[in-house]
């Protein structure tokens, strides 16, 4: 008799699991902390008389990668990506940052929809050919890791106004250029969702890897609001 009931209990449990999972996702509190939106935000009045929030988005950019292909901001929409700024002749923090970025790429090698971009702050030297050699030197898989170059002023502008980090020529700085050591985590809609020190392995291994997992979990969790996911059109 017990075996008969046991089979019934197991069958009911299997049938109920999808419903329980759905309820956990769509009701009450989720079992993970949602990542913040970093940068200025704007409250807008919706047609129903309520307020919604528009968050900062990475502005449009258009650069060239190590293979001579054009990569734009819009090409990255729909993907989660991690961005940093570097230069090929950097004598200090760049090698460590490249190592930590490589760690992330290898750890998440099977994660679809995750990309990596490294933008040079010395485009006059870091040509397509130089970036190609640099990518090989740091053992990057360029299937989803792009090294970008382009107009210097546009690079510096998007660094400051888009990613909120410094990037500039500085004769006093080692190698002649000043740039941030931070890795910037961007979601599929172009919002900044995290800033992490790319020179600290433990921070990358613990905090950034957790943040990447969380940002992908958001795909199955309903987001509130009607305006927050709209994409700024190319300008």
Describe what this molecule looks like in 3D.
- Strands 7-6-5-10-11 form a five-stranded mixed sheet. A two-stranded antiparallel ribbon has the order 1-2.
- With 235 residues, the chain is α+β, with helices and mostly antiparallel strands.
- It contains six helices and eleven strands.
- Helices cover 34% and strands 22% of the residues.
- Residues 5-31 have low confidence and may be disordered.
- The protein has a single domain, classed as Glutaredoxin (3-Layer(aba) Sandwich), CATH 3.40.30.10.
Short description:
This protein is of the alpha+beta class and 235 residues long. The chain contains 6 helices and 11 strands. The strands form 4 sheets. Strands 7-6-5-10-11 form a 5-stranded mixed beta sheet. Strands 1-2 form a two-stranded antiparallel sheet.
What share of the residues does DSSP label as strand, in percent?
15-25%
Count of extended strands: 11
| Sheet with the most strands, sense and barrel status | 5 strands, mixed
User: Mean pLDDT, nearest integer?
Assistant: 83
Total domain count? 1
Low-pLDDT regions: 5-31
Relevant CATH superfamily = Glutaredoxin
SS-based class: alpha+beta
CATH architecture assignment: 3-Layer(aba) Sandwich
Give the termini distance in whole angstroms.
72 Å
Radius of gyration (Å): 22 Å
Q: How are the strands ordered across the major sheet?
A: 7-6-5-10-11
